[in-house]
Amino acid sequence: MANLRDIRRRIKSVKNTAQITRAMELVAAAKMKKAQDQAVAGRGYADELNKVLVNLKENVDENAHPLLEKREGQKTLTLVISTDKGLCGGLNANLLKEVNNAHTGETEYVTVGRKLRLNLMKSGKDLKADFVVKDPVPFAEARPISKFLTEQFLSGEYDCIKVAFNDFKSTMVQEPKVIQLLPIESSELGEKQDYEGVGKGAVTETDKAAALEKEYLFEPSPEKVLDTLLPQYVNFQVYQMLVESRASEHSARMVSMKAATDNANEMVADLTLEFNKLRQAAITAELLEITTAMKAME
């Protein structure tokens, strides 16, 4: 009977765990919906901003603006966007693998999120700064990050600024990426990244042609407009990456918690079956003892 008590206690413990993981799954699902809504809300702005940049780059010398300037050096500053909490499957591990693959001896890091910040510190990487971002992501909190990255690039201390983040593809798929943020490459100015509009494809040649057919009147000049527009473009890029990373986090956590809940339920079913077998064996043994005793008394 002691064995039966142990199994009963274990069943109760696993059921309690299943309740916790189920609650975490529901919370993650609600947060994921908010993060996805944030990403969807930026689609229209991303579309128009890219179309304006396509037209604008045809009217100015791209090498004239510092944010478009390509440099010979290889010193890189990488913004790593990870999670503050765990229980989200292999999300951070997969991103860390991409970061390590892109790492060179001249790479330093800026972090958002506690998980990879601690990992990078333990591995001896050079950390330049760390930022904390609320959930859901406020647009205002992307500005200090993009401003810091832009200032580091314009100061000449770094030749390239990159961002490592998880691109939210779907509830089941989050793709770790390391992309170049600065200098803004001319080939990227008119292209739509996957994270600019969840579920939308890349800008086609037809879209680019349509954008170029529109006539924009730039005042006071295209160069002045570029001075204002490019920092906004960088700021929006950083914001969108933060939102995609947050949507990826909650999506991965929801899937992980659902898998944990399912495993717990399966374990409860297996333990219940084992408990019933042992109890039936105990009942059968008692019946045999009673029957044997009765026969002995005859």
TrEMBL record:
Its main localization is membrane
Is-annotated flag, keyword Nucleotide-binding?
no
**Location of the protein in the cell:** Cell membrane; Membrane
Q: Which Pfam families match?
A: ATP-synt (PF00231)
Can the keyword Transport be found in this entry's annotation?
yes
Alphabetically sorted, this entry's keywords are:
ATP synthesis, Cell membrane, CF(1), Hydrogen ion transport, Ion transport, Membrane, Transport
Q: How does it sit in the membrane?
A: Peripheral membrane protein
Q: Which SUPFAM superfamilies match?
A: ATP synthase (F1-ATPase), gamma subunit (SSF52943)
Q: How does it assemble?
A: F-type ATPases have 2 components, CF(1) - the catalytic core - and CF(0) - the membrane proton channel. CF(1) has five subunits: alpha(3), beta(3), gamma(1), delta(1), epsilon(1). CF(0) has three main subunits: a, b and c.
Chain's role? Produces ATP from ADP in the presence of a proton gradient across the membrane. The gamma chain is believed to be important in regulating ATPase activity and the flow of protons through the CF(0) complex.
Q: Which PANTHER family does this entry report, sorted A to Z?
A: ATP SYNTHASE GAMMA CHAIN, ATP SYNTHASE SUBUNIT GAMMA, MITOCHONDRIAL
Name the family the entry cites.
Belongs to the ATPase gamma chain family.
This chain's protein is named: ATP synthase gamma chain
Q: Which organism is it from?
A: Rubritalea tangerina
